[in-house]
Amino acid sequence: MGKGGLSEKVQEGMLSNSTALTQIAQQQAKNSQQLYGVTEPGLVTAEDMYQSLASGDPSAIMRAISPAAQQVTKSSEGAKKNILQNAPAGGEKNLALEMVDANKGSQIGSLASGAVANAPNALASLAGQGVGESISAAGTGIAGLGSANQGLGQLGQMQMQNKGAELGAIGSLAGDATGVATKGLM
Fold it and tell me: Average of pLDDT values for 166-174?
């Protein structure tokens, strides 16, 4: 195989690699859109909930903490039932029952204030999650395109070098022919 054949094989390989990198970049761009499409609805729902919590809307707060508040209520009811069944009658029993109610109120209040206080942090965290995944996939795609462009640039340089070598050889032959013709005239 001559020098030209090897050069052509190298150029074909570089073009093939650049094409493959372009296809990978296009797939990553598609993946980026799909990731964003999958995560965006959940992000919107979570963002809406945390915005309503951050606003201090009592209904939103109660909806958000209701599963935990129900567990606190169940636990309190169990404690009251135990006190009613096992504690002797009198002031201590009444105090114990009132303490259960006070503890229940404190726990539910703590849940509500925690939900409101943590909402801004949750919103900040949400802002970066889905968008970050999408940007990461897009970055991979952009890197692939950059590599493909670099490969195509190298391919162009090789083609120019080959063309220059061909033209140099033709120029050299022309110079040799001129030299031979000049010597023949002398």
Answer: 60
